């Protein structure tokens, strides 16, 4: 209610009114509405030393190693940091480690910063790093990167500031695993209270109004000189996307995430605001390959040729996105292939021919799992349903609320399902979670799909040091995936942040890293 009252008030007032005017109006109106609890702490545009950030939801948690969604990650990376992370341009950069060496692709040696401290004042040591990765890889761990760090054979503490990782086999993308936003270092003292791990990020949490607001203060011993640039961050949760946009337009917040696609044109045209959009996340279909019609790859391919991707973009994303008819390899990477990305296009004749080859010339019935809770998922499902009637597939929609949809998805209780996500990093190896069953359990993959050729090629790509040879290996993966259609991609979707014009330093990071854009808040300030 606190954030809603503030936003409703902002709708009454002209955009330019500031705190003093609000207080004057409160006195004039008798203060019944205006001095409701929480109003005095509400955001006022261009507050010196404070950034107000509009989250898309209240974080269900922000423990350092768990994946709880974008809002959680945005808060989490303020409190915790790893050995390395990503620059605003998407390059791996130093964090707790000031430097590293890779004598071979099976050995990674890191030198820790002398001035890195945890929030309790203790220096960050190699023992803390070793504790962190042993906890992440423990059998009972819920860490989102647990499977990836199964690549570690042993960890050697050389001394307090130098540590070596020995891998089971060469892995050139191991540094990308370490840069992930859920690969954070915590103090070994966190073992005493795992629900309150001790981090070393640029901010500490100072106040929490559960369900609505989180306030953070700059950590005065952060290891990067002159950072963070802003002393205080205030995260306000706006589950309703219209309230989130209204808060930005009224000046209640300085930045918002998840700009609704239907609002992008208006925000982009507003001279007081800046819209920052990248094509990072993507929409796609997964299939039950254990039972049902889609055990046959030809029928999965028929679906791939049966969908008109521009219809999905128009209906679900207000034409903010790009068709995607191959594996989701981010543009700007050395592995992106425009030809293969556009392989699947609507071709009714080809789709029907594939169905005939699969013994289904007269069509069949299949249930598509999605959700009515989020428009982009519901609208995508409806377009797929309409498109596939043209090739004889009678699609029945199952649109439960989100929690049920996730539960059914995790259990594989569907014929096929709508999905939307992004990879963990911009290297081709990130696609393992969608294709390779050896990459650990993943809701993002089609249940039951196993292909040894793809698995072996993905492993070879991780171990290959020569960039040209890696590219050739991954092209083979791409071609094999187009043949077997373990997933069917639909479109890149535009992912947007918006800021007030007076905000500087915040950046929507490229490709799959868009969800890590909270890292740039350390450089963000009001100009």
Can you describe what's shown?
There is one protein chain. With 527 residues, this protein is an alpha+beta fold. It is built from 16 helices and 19 strands. Strands 1, 8, 9, 10, 11, 12, 13, 14, 15, 16 and 17 form an eleven-stranded mixed sheet that branches. A four-stranded antiparallel sheet has the order 4-5-7-6, with helices on one face. A hairpin with a 3-residue loop joins strand 8 and strand 9. Helix 1 crosses helix 6, helix 8 (297-306) packs antiparallel against helix 11 and helix 15 packs antiparallel against helix 16 (467-484). The longest helix has 18 residues, at 467-484.
Mean pLDDT rating: 91
Structural class by helix and strand composition:
alpha+beta
Shape: globular
Radius of gyration: 24 Å
Uncertain segments: 1-44
Q: Terminal Cα separation, in Å?
A: 31 Å
**Content of β-strand:** 15-25%
């Amino acid at each position: 209610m606190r954030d809603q009252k503030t936003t409703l008030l902002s709708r009454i007032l002209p955009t330019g009114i500031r705190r003093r005017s609000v207080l004057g109006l409160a006195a004039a109106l008798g203060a019944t509405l205006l001095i409701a609890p929480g109003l005095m702490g509400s955001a006022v545009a261009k507050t010196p030393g404070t950034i107000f950030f509009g989250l898309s939801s209240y974080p269900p948690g922000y423990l350092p190693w768990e994946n709880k969604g974008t809002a959680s990650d945005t808060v989490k990376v303020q409190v915790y940091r790893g050995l390395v992370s990503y620059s605003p341009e998407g390059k791996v950069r130093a964090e707790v480690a000031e430097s590293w060496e890779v004598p071979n692709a099976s050995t990674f040696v890191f030198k820790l910063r002398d001035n890195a401290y945890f929030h309790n004042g203790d220096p960050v040591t190699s023992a803390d790093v070793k504790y962190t990765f042993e906890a992440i890889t423990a059998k009972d761990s819920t860490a989102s990167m647990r499977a990836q760090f199964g690549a570690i054979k042993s960890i050697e503490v050389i001394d307090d500031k130098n540590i070596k990782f020995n891998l089971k086999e060469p892995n050139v993308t191991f540094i990308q695993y370490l840069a992930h936003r859920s690969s954070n270092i915590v103090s070994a003292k966190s073992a005493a209270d795992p629900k309150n791990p001790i981090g070393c990020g640029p901010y500490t949490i100072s106040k929490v109004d559960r369900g609505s607001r989180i306030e953070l203060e700059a950590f005065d011993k952060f290891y990067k000189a002159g950072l963070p640039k802003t002393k205080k961050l205030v995260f306000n949760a706006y589950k309703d996307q219209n309230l989130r946009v209204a808060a930005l337009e009224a000046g209640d917040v300085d930045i918002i995430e998840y700009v609704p696609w239907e609002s992008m044109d208006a925000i982009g045209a507003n001279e007081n605001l800046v819209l920052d959009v990248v094509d990072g996340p993507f929409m796609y279909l997964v299939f039950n390959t254990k039972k049902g019609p889609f055990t046959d790859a030809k029928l999965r391919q028929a679906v791939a040729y049966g969908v008109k991707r521009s219809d999905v973009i128009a209906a679900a994303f207000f034409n903010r996105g790009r068709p995607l008819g191959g594996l989701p390899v981010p543009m700007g990477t050395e592995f992106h292939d425009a030809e293969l990305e556009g392989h699947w296009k609507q071709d009714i004749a080809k789709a029907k021919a594939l169905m005939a080859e699969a013994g289904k010339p007269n069509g069949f019935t299949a249930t598509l799992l999605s959700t009515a809770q989020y428009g982009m998922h519901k609208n995508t499902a409806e377009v797929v349903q309409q498109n596939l009637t043209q090739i004889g597939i009678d699609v029945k929609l199952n649109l439960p609320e989100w929690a049920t949809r996730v539960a059914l998805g995790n259990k594989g209780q569907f014929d096929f399902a709508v999905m939307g996500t992004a990879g963990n990093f911009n290297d081709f190896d990130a696609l393992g979670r969608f294709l390779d069953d050896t990459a650990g359990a993943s809701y993002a993959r089609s249940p039951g799909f196993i292909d040894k050729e793809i698995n072996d090629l993905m492993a070879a790509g991780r171990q290959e040091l020569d960039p040209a040879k890696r590219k050739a290996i991954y092209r083979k993966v791409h071609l094999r995936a187009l043949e077997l259609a373990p997933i069917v991609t639909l479109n890149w979707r535009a992912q947007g942040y918006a800021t007030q014009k007076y905000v500087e330093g915040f950046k929507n990071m490229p490709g799959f890293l868009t969800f890590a854009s909270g890292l740039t808040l350390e450089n963000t300030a009001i100009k």
